[in-house]
Amino acid sequence: xxxxxxxxxxxxVLVAAAWADGxxxxxxxxxxxxxxxxxxxxxxxxxxxxxxxxxSPVNDAERQRLVEELQAQLASPDDRTRALQALDxxxxxxxxxxxxEQAVVDEIKAALQTGRPAPAHRWNVFARNSVQQRTxxxxxxxxxxxxLDDFAKNKIFYHVSQRLPSADGAEHIPNDDLRKFxxxxxxxxxxxxxxxxxxxxxxxxxxxxxQQAWGISPAAAGVVAEVAVSEIGxxxxxxxxxxxxxxxxxxxxxxxxxxxLFAVTIGDGHAAEEEIEEIRTISHGLLxxxxxxxxxxxxxxxxxxxxx
Length: 308
What we know:
By secondary structure, the protein is mainly α. It has helices at residues 3-18, 26-37, 44-54, 60-73, 77-91, 99-114, 120-139, 148-153, 155-163, 175-192, 200-214, 218-231, 238-247, 251-265, 273-285, 290-297. Helix 1 crosses helix 7 and helix 10 (175-192) packs parallel to helix 14 (251-265).
């Protein structure tokens, strides 16, 4: 059984379990998407199917069928290991795991390990607990009268949207585009900040990349870069950041953006090993393949790649 098949089946079981009480709020749905999007082995093609699947309620009969199908697919030790790793990642995505939550996880894992069916109602509890914890994490943002949802989910966009209208020489940018640029700025700054400092060269590379990739003015690119650099050390939500950027870009844009991430690393003269590993994490988070990551990495001359 392929890794992708197992992950997709597991994701469908978790979607069905989250719908067990017949309703999911918008915030819960976004939280569920965050968790599923980052399951180990998720691909862009599989995400297209899962993302649509999340939107529709799942009845009891289908829920039971999905659990049985997953159980049948977990015949080999490798497949069971993949499923167990995915469950561990999901339950720990947002930090603390209570004793009650761990007990549910342990019960499901024990069933998977022994080949016994994991009870459908335990999947329901696991999914709801994970989604609620994720929703709570995302909602823990200071109250704002305007752009509250954007502040909670994309703090860089919130601050850019407040500053851009008064910036000299900055054009009007539609909100959808501005969100994308802000997400890009956050990921670019994340790489530059790996060593807890953004050099002038790295900062200028972020500005240049925003201009070249999307044709925005130097003034607008400067505002996005300045806000991104100032916010990157303030516990930005990596799960939401990468998923939203993925959903707002094409694969071609994401591949070109991978090149831009590497360009930022040599803004201070060389690409450090820690920066390259951060790009590897981001590449994985954007559902790009290992081969695509390596191809982008090799565009940086070897002498500029520290210890690589």
